[in-house]
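Consider the following input, taken from an annotated entry for BMP family ABC transporter substrate-binding protein (Planobispora rosea).
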Amino acid sequence: MLHNRFGRLAASALAGTMLMGAAACGGSEEPTTTASPGTGATSAAPGGGTTKVGLAYDIGGRGDQSFNDAAAAGLDKAKTELGLAEAKELEAGSGETEAAKEERLRLLAQGGFNPIIAVGFAYSKPLAKVAAEFPDVKFAIVDDAEAKAANITNLLFAEHEGSFLVGAAAALKSEKNHVGFVGGVRVPLIDKFEAGFEAGAKAVKPDIKIESTYLSEPPEFSGFNDPAKGKTAAEGMFDAGADVVYHAAGGSGGGVFEAAKAANGKAIGVDSDQAKTAAEGVRDVIMTSMIKKVDVAVFDFLKSVSDGSVASGPKVYDLKAGGVDYSTTGGQVDDIKTKLDEYKQKIVSGEITVPDKTS
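Applying the prediction step yields:
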């Protein structure tokens, strides 16, 4: 991993040159830029196109086996199918300032990257500011509806609907009538996951016991990248009698899986099909995952820029649009699939309205 520290004035003056070796930002007013692990700061794409895509990750970056990896998969597909000229991936540092996120986006825009995708709601205010400075650059942001401009596309998901399905799965599979939820950071977005999970579990068993905890509170966002905290939280739930625990905690979910393995319990993954992406030794405890198709949204946005059909404003990927779902890898929910699909159809038809906030 390469590390280069730049002052803000130097960053502004030398942005084009710096972008050739810059990547993830550190947590200070003078961002540290670091190449994405395993990818390099910049990668050429097949096809000889002219589009230079910039992608700024949330905490954890490529390799988190969850949210960021889903975004990376969409970028990788675009590299193959759309013939991008160049793609640059930059990572976020734990505990960094909004100024650092701003500078990361600004460096990409100054370096001629267009479009630019910001992965995660933490980029909301930085993106709004930088998009105003570069009105000719097309931006997209995942999981945020607040940043609004003629050159911003908001890629949004009905996480509560997908979470309802895995909540129902948890209740159907629980032998102890006791399940748990581990959230990464207590913010409205993660509350949507909890609300849906709780509603799904109670739709199956109204008297089910549901435990919930969050690993950090804003402005501390380390809960998305702290497997040790995730393990401790899940251990407490299993020790208290839960036999299925769902996490919406990014990279911290690896610790939840470890706790499930040690307790002979079951876990539910998030964002990606984690029975395929998690560490091999814990995949067998992941009974299902709430799939959030960030890869599809990222690819769709890049394709719309490529073909000239890009539109600003919100684009919502809900259950009806196939933007969220549950996974079946490993066959552990095959016996309840008919029931889960009945719930899915009731949500799509409007017979069931899933709450997007906890009570």
